[in-house]
Design goal:
Blueprint lengths: L14 H11 L24 E4 L3 H12 L4 E4 L12 E4 L1 H10 L2 H7 L1 E2 L2 E5 L5 E5 L2 H8 L4 E4 H10 L7 E2 L4 E7 L3 E6 L4 E4 L1 E4 L6 H10 L4 H9 L2 E7 L5 E6 L1 E13 L9 E7 L2 E7 L5 E14 L8 H11 L3 E3 L5 E2 H5 L2 E13 L4 E2 L2 E3 L5 E2 L7 H26 L7 H33 L4 H13 L3 H10 L33 H7 L1 H13 L5 H11 L1 E4 L2 E4 L8 H13 L1 H5 L3 H25 L12 H11 L1 H15 L8 H4 L3 H4 L2 H18 L3 H12 L1 H13 L6 H7 L5 H25 L19 H33 L7 H14 L1 H19 L8 H8 L4
Parallel strand pairs: 1-2, 1-12, 2-8, 5-16, 12-23
Antiparallel strand pairs: 3-7, 4-7, 5-6, 9-10, 10-11, 13-14, 15-18, 15-21, 16-17, 17-18, 19-20, 21-24, 22-23, 25-26
Helix pairs in contact: 1-12, 2-6, 2-11, 3-11, 5-14, 11-12, 15-22, 16-22, 16-30, 17-18, 18-26, 20-25, 20-29, 20-30, 20-32, 21-22, 21-27, 22-30, 25-26, 25-27, 29-32, 30-31, 30-32, 31-32
């Protein structure tokens, strides 16, 4: 009933490719006699026509789309009316709203539905777990609000939007389907009427008669698949899903673990319209959506005693409703002062219904001239509220394919009658387009259902910890579900769907997300650099040299003996460890080695842009709840082991966790300005000031004290950001909606200033020595050096090479990503050519800083090549309205 609080599993439904390949090889020839005299149209002289079984959301959406595509159709509904009042409500989200808007039916629905503006998760006693006000963000990202209303209103709007009402036939209960691959399909209704068409689309719900007939036809050729569909079995399969996800196991068929009593109540006073509340309980759940005028949509569910499968899923009567209320009437929906229990709400309920809530995904979407759409082929639980939306999407995808077939027939001069091969190819493409995405949404809703009832310890952890600590989880899950939504290709796109912060993109979102495993494999060269650095930079013998010098008590500097500082923080183990590490810095700190000192100054100044970037990345919204939020950990490891070893590891993780799709919403590039604005001041205080102290303090013994301070700069920088952020006003909640580029100026100043200092250090280092920039290149393996001074120089040279060189490799990955997404107008080769020029002239620190800022500008100002925007709609879709 609102978005699932768990990323949807994208690996669970793999049958489309198998079915498609089988259909290319197999042809089912089921021939029947000519239709009886009651058949309304004869095969020989009619035009291409679609038969739609079922007048629910999917069926009526398909009917609207086919009418506007000028494709003949008939809709057959078994009930006496198309929009009955059965007490059900429905959520319409961006994915469905855009299609309804294309059809011209959305405005009426939007005017009558309730806009959700606050989602509250509650404990069993009504106390608040967390609140989510992400509705504004969803609107800014997609152009559509999250709307909730009566299912009857949606159905009536779709019915009224049909111009030729004669195509909508009620009271037609289908009892038989006759199929001939070569000539067409005929349905026989209970009243004896027969209707012919070229394609039969089963939109007749979870107990679909059309799906059953499709199984009967397919069973001789695919007995194992049909058996699995009917008996709801788990299947194991190893194959590649398009766009990169691997899968091993999926479930096919239909089952029910829960039931739900839902209804509509009136006269519920004292509550604010637009609020959606969820009461999380072990084994049961209660939900309410408040509308204007004291109206309330509500839901209550419980876990069934066992899992039921297709053919045995229970149905309930009024006696069982009373029993349900006796068990669950104590569910607290709202605490004091407006305390509301399910029993209280029942007293004001005017319509209700108790049902088992099925969940199902099927492998066999089509056979011959028969296919299914909506709940008959992908059934989600109501907890995510997307069942109607994915039905709308499937209807739109199918309409696109049918329209293309009809247009092809018109161009070739046929009587708008496509061949059986063309029909089967179209239906296979329909399944391939929709199956994985629909399955991902079904899984997401299933997870939310389990979380609502806190089914396992993991679900309890998710509810009690993850929900309150990541307030935008719902908006993020909405984003992944909605961004890849289908549209009607033959109708103009509404402008409101184009002028947004996260435009629709058919190549992104659930079911199409880039494989993290694939990125990890592709990024292995960075891990190789880390391993190679670890091998080459192994301290070995010099560790003892440093300890000997530390324990000797004095350091000889220009005929002056400087006492060794062995205690600073008063923590013996820390002080002893840091004291011997400090000895490695002695040649550069005191100028014992001119080359070592020059290299150290250059190295440490060039590190400024890198550290600034790492800290800024930790504040980026796209990196929330990832290890990239822990720069202090990685920077501390750099101090202990060397940036040459740790940087490639960090950059590999960054590459894996930050694909271009992470920035499909402009607000995801945005940093948390309260923290990002404090990065450079914190670096100056925690890194640069101690650095100047231990390099240039006129009192030689004090340099060691400053070095003790500098060694812990990751901690001081982190503390600085924490303290300074208390003085910065938090504006990210508004910035993410209407000012997604607010941080760009500050980021450019911060990284730019660090890059200037880095460039200055690099140029000075080259000009100060006779060897030019060659002084930065290592001349041997550190552990092969003869003394501590030569080891120190060699170690820092290798640290420089691996640490800074890995950032250049990382840039190559980032720009390759941009190029693949069509966002790098300059070309990957040209950009990397500039990078090489920068490395030669101003060094890696300034070059990486400048390249990172350039990428920020690209992410803030350009869209993915497949994003459906005002700029791209003419190229991709032929205009908008």
């Amino acid at each position: 009933m609102f978005p699932a609080n768990q990323p949807a599993s994208l690996l669970s439904h793999l049958g489309s490719l198998c079915v498609y390949n089988l259909h290319k090889c197999l042809r089912l020839h089921v021939r029947h006699s000519l239709p009886s005299s009651k058949t309304l149209t004869m095969t020989q002289d009619r035009e291409f026509r679609i038969l739609i079984a079922g007048g629910g959301v999917a069926g009526l959406t398909l009917a609207n789309a086919l009418e506007q595509a000028n494709v003949p159709y008939l809709l057959l509904e078994r009930r006496a009316e198309l929009a009955p009042q059965v007490g059900a409500s429905i959520g319409i989200f961006s994915s469905g709203a855009r299609i309804l808007d294309q059809l011209g039916a959305w405005r009426r629905i939007e005017e009558t539905a309730e806009r959700i503006n606050l989602l509250t998760a509650r404990r069993h006693n009504g106390s608040v777990i967390c609140e989510d006000r992400s509705s504004e963000l969803i609107l800014a990202r997609t152009g559509y609000c999250t709307a909730w209303g009566e299912r009857q209103v949606l159905l009536q709007a779709l019915v009224d939007n049909i111009k030729d009402q004669s195509k909508l036939l009620t009271g037609r209960n289908i009892v038989e389907v006759r199929h001939d691959l070569e000539t067409g399909v005929t349905v026989v209704c209970e009243n004896g009427e027969e209707y012919e068409g070229d394609v039969l689309v089963g939109c007749d719900g979870v107990n679909s008669r059309v799906r059953e007939r499709m199984w009967e036809l397919a069973e001789p050729e695919m007995p194992g698949v049909v058996k699995g569909e009917r008996e709801s079995e788990f299947h194991s399969l190893l194959m590649r899903i398009p766009r990169g996800e691997d899968a091993l196991t999926f479930m096919t068929g239909l089952f029910a673990d829960y039931n739900t009593l839902f209804g509509i109540a009136y006269g519920v006073e004292g509550l604010t319209a637009g609020h959606l509340d969820t009461s999380y309980n072990i084994g049961r759940v209660g939900m309410t959506i408040v509308a204007e005028g004291g109206k309330m949509y509500w839901f209550a569910g419980e876990r069934l005693s066992r899992r039921y499968y297709l053919g045995e899923i229970p149905r309930f009567d009024e006696e069982e409703v009373k029993s349900f209320l006796a068990r669950n009437g104590s569910i607290v929906l709202r605490p004091e002062p407006n305390r509301l229990t399910l029993a209280d709400l029942w007293k004001k309920t005017v319509v209700h219904r108790l049902v088992s809530i099925e969940q199902g995904k099927f492998k066999l979407w089509h056979w011959g001239r028969i296919t299914c759409a909506g709940d008959s082929i992908h059934k989600s639980t109501p907890n995510l509220g997307v069942g109607g939306n994915i039905g709308i999407e499937s209807a739109a995808t199918l309409a696109n394919g049918i329209k293309q077939l009809a247009d092809k027939c018109s161009r070739t001069g046929q009587l708008r009658r496509p061949s059986p091969d063309d029909i089967q190819k179209m239906l296979a493409e329909y399944q391939q387009e929709r199956e994985i995405r629909a399955a991902a949404v079904v899984d997401a809703s299933g997870f939310l259902t389990q979380a609502h009832c806190m089914q396992t310890a993991y679900h309890q952890f998710f509810v009690n910890w993850m929900l309150p600590n990541f307030g935008e989880l719902i908006a993020e899950l909405f984003h992944h579900v909605m961004i890849g939504a289908t549209k009607l290709d033959f109708l103009p796109l509404p402008k409101r769907s184009l002028m947004v912060n996260a435009p629709f993109n058919p190549t992104q979102g659930d079911g199409r997300r880039e494989s993290k495993l694939k990125r990890a494999f592709f990024g292995l060269p960075l891990l190789f650099l880390s391993c190679l650095a670890f091998y080459i930079m192994n301290v070995g013998i010099p560790e003892q040299w440093a300890k000997d010098q530390r324990d000797g008590g004095f350091i000889a500097v220009d005929n002056t003996s400087v006492p060794v500082l062995r205690s600073f923080y008063g923590w013996k183990s820390l002080d002893e460890t840091m004291a011997w590490v400090n000895m490695i810095f002695v040649p550069g700190m005191y100028g014992v080695s001119e080359e070592g000192r020059r290299h150290m100054i250059t190295f440490l100044l060039e590190g400024l842009p890198f550290f600034t970037i790492w800290l800024l990345e930790s504040t980026r919204r796209a990196n929330a709840l990832t290890i990239l939020q822990l720069p202090t950990l990685f920077l501390t490891l750099c101090q202990l082991m060397g940036i040459g070893i740790i940087a490639p590891l960090y950059l590999h993780l960054h590459y894996v966790l930050s694909p271009v799709e992470s920035f499909a919403a402009r607000d995801k590039r945005l940093t948390n300005t309260r923290r990002s604005y404090t990065t450079l001041p914190s670096i100056l205080l925690g890194y640069l000031v101690p650095l100047v102290g231990f390099l240039f303090s006129p009192h030689l013994p004090h340099r060691q004290a400053w070095l003790f301070v500098w060694q812990l700069f990751p901690i001081w920088t982190s503390l600085g950001m924490f303290v300074l952020s208390r003085f910065v006003r938090e504006t990210v909640n508004q910035d993410k909606i209407d000012n997604t580029e607010k941080d760009l100026t500050v980021l450019r100043w911060y990284v730019g200033l660090g890059s200037v200092l880095a460039a200055g250090g690099h140029v000075w280092g080259k000009m100060a020595g006779a060897a030019g920039w060659g002084f930065l290149l290592p001349g041997g393996i550190p552990r092969g050096c003869a003394d501590l001074t030569s080891f120190s120089v060699s170690f820092l040279q290798w640290d420089y090479l691996f640490g800074f060189g890995s950032h250049v490799v990382w840039l190559g990955y980032l720009f390759w990503d941009l190029a693949r997404a069509g966002m790098l107008e300059e070309g990957c080769g040209s950009v990397m050519g500039v990078v090489v020029g920068g490395l030669v002239t101003v060094g890696p620190g300034a070059t990486v800083g400048g390249a990172w800022l350039f990428r920020e500008g690209v992410l803030a100002g350009r869209w993915h090549r497949d994003a459906v925007t005002v700029e791209s709609v003419g190229r991709l879709h032929g205009g908008s309205k």
